[in-house]
Specification:
By secondary structure, this protein is α+β, with helices and mostly antiparallel strands. The longest helix is centred in the middle third of the chain and has 46 residues. The radius of gyration is 36 Å and the shape is rod-shaped. The protein has a 5-stranded antiparallel β-sheet with strand order 3-2-1-6-7. Strands 4-5 form a two-stranded antiparallel sheet. A two-stranded antiparallel sheet has the order 8-9. The protein is 55% helix and 12% strand. Helix 1 packs antiparallel against helix 2, helix 1 runs antiparallel to helix 4 and helix 2 packs antiparallel against helix 3. The chain folds into 2 domains: 141 residues, no CATH class; 100 residues, 2-Layer Sandwich (Herpes Virus-1). It catalyses: S-ubiquitinyl-[E2 ubiquitin-conjugating enzyme]-L-cysteine + [acceptor protein]-L-lysine = [E2 ubiquitin-conjugating enzyme]-L-cysteine + N(6)-ubiquitinyl-[acceptor protein]-L-lysine. Its EC number is 2.3.2.27. Keywords: Membrane, Metal-binding, Signal, Transferase, Transmembrane, Transmembrane helix, Ubl conjugation pathway, Zinc, Zinc-finger. It holds the Pfam family zf-RING_2.
Length: 251
């Protein structure tokens, strides 16, 4: 808005100082039209400001419609001005140098502003594509998340993984989870694991013979050291987002 006011003042000042210049193209008319468009933009911004503050009666749709019309008219007027400057050539520069350079400055500023908007939009798009998943993950991790205490972790069923030899395998199982007594004195039931299930989804390594495991209320199992570190930061299952403190599944 400020530069539009500056352009209006610069236009009228230059028009008053160049009354003796005789350009070979109607560049003076173009500068008047350009200043008028800047003035219209200032008025529309002021009306929108008053409407948002509740002191104006102009409808938002009317202001936006007028702004769109003014933008399209500015684009067409820019093309007209560019044509008149180019067609005027050196003769325009000689007969009306100040009007010529004022028009060139206005045209160049519009090009710079358009390029700046396009580049800014591209940068925002690239930033959203690259950073948005990380931002969402960080916000999801810190917003409303609560870590589990040692007392909560002590209530989780504990197992020791035992690999099966060929004689013990019945249905291609890789091993079994043998319950281990915990501080809560709760002993879970023995579980059989298929080869594709006998690995921790946190560290992505297969269970070694004798490895300590923990299961969550949602029946997902993990390496003991991995899931304890995870739950101390975030009391939800890494797979299904079941909250072991609240007893529900987060969406």
């Amino acid at each position: 808005m400020l530069w539009n006011i500056a352009f209006v003042l610069a236009s009228f000042t230059m028009l008053m100082l160049t009354t003796k210049e005789r350009p070979n193209t109607p560049i003076r008319v173009w500068i008047c039209g350009y200043a008028l468009q800047c003035l219209v933009h200032v008025v529309l911004v002021w009306l929108e400001y008053r409407r948002r503050n509740g002191s104006g009666r102009a409808a938002s749709s009317d202001v936006k419609r007028c702004e769109s019309v003014n933008t399209m008219a500015s684009f067409v007027w820019w093309i007209v001005g560019f044509y008149w400057v180019v067609s005027g050539g050196d003769l325009l520069l000689q007969t009306a140098p100040r009007l010529y350079w004022l028009a060139v400055v206005f045209l160049a500023f519009d090009v710079f502003f358009a390029i700046f908007c396009v580049v800014l939009a591209c940068l925002i798009g690239i930033a959203l594509c690259c950073c948005l998943p990380c931002i969402i993950a960080i916000l999801y991790a810190v917003a409303g998340q609560e870590g589990a205490s040692d007392a909560d972790l002590g209530l989780l069923p504990k197992y020791r993984f035992q690999m099966l030899n060929n004689a013990e395998k019945l249905n291609s199982e890789a091993g079994k989870m043998v319950p281990v007594e915990t501080s809560s004195l709760y002993v879970a039931q023995e579980r059989m694991l298929l080869p594709e299930d006998a690995e921790c989804c946190i560290c992505l390594t297969s269970y070694d013979d004798g490895a300590e495991l923990h299961t969550l209320p949602c029946n997902h199992h993990f390496d003991s050291s991995c899931i304890i570190r995870w739950l101390k930061m975030n009391a939800t299952c890494p797979l299904c987002k079941y909250n072991i403190l609240k007893g529900n599944e987060q969406v």
